[in-house]
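Hi R.,

As promised on Friday, here is the backbone we talked about, encoded as structure tokens. Could you run it through your design pipeline when you get a chance and send me back a sequence?
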């Protein structure tokens, strides 16, 4: 339940599939489309729900998270009420997913990969590495964060404004 995308088949599938109404903006290419797909990323008790066009959907179904269009970030209970419970109530979030949950709630975030601790574990090195892009006043700014499974920062490199934004998310957890 930590960081996996779900495609739902229950009675609430329709509510999920039409989460953004009749038209949604794709989070990767920003086109506004009627025929959009919805992806939910779970970070333990946080669900990030995003719309994608058909062309961008495959990219969003793997390890990447885009936030350039319509999306909502919900806690698990709100998600379950609105779209049906995707599984048992998750355990408390790990330190790493707490950091990622703060990042996906940051309105300046535009890109994150991998998008979950589970995704980072799959690429496993001794620390978990995340590449992040923000939309800031200065434009798109990128940084890379490496953290231990305990959530301690190993390194934080990249453009100064992006590093500052990332540090805020890390220190607030
Ligand atoms: Zn698209």
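Update: got your reply. Pasting your designed sequence below so it's all in one thread:
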């Amino acid at each position: 339940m930590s960081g996996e995308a779900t495609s739902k088949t229950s009675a609430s599938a329709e509510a999920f599939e039409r989460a953004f109404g009749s038209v949604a903006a794709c989070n990767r290419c920003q086109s506004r489309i009627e025929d959009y797909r919805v992806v939910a990323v779970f970070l333990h008790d946080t669900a990030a729900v995003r719309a994608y066009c058909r062309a961008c959907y495959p990219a969003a179904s793997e390890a990447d998270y885009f936030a350039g269009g319509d999306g909502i970030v919900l806690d698990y209970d709100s998600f379950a009420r609105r779209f049906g419970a995707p599984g048992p109530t998750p355990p408390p979030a790990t330190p790493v997913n707490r950091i990622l949950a703060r990042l996906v709630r940051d309105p300046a975030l535009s890109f994150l990969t991998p998008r979950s601790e589970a995704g980072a574990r799959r690429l496993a090195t001794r620390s978990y590495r995340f590449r992040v892009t923000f939309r800031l006043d200065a434009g798109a700014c990128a940084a890379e964060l490496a953290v231990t499974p305990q959530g301690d920062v190993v390194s934080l490199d990249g453009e100064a404004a992006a590093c500052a934004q990332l540090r805020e998310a890390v220190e607030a957890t």
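One thing I noticed while checking it: Residues 26, 28-29, 31, 52-53, 55-56 surround zinc ion (CB under 6 Å).

Thanks again,
M.
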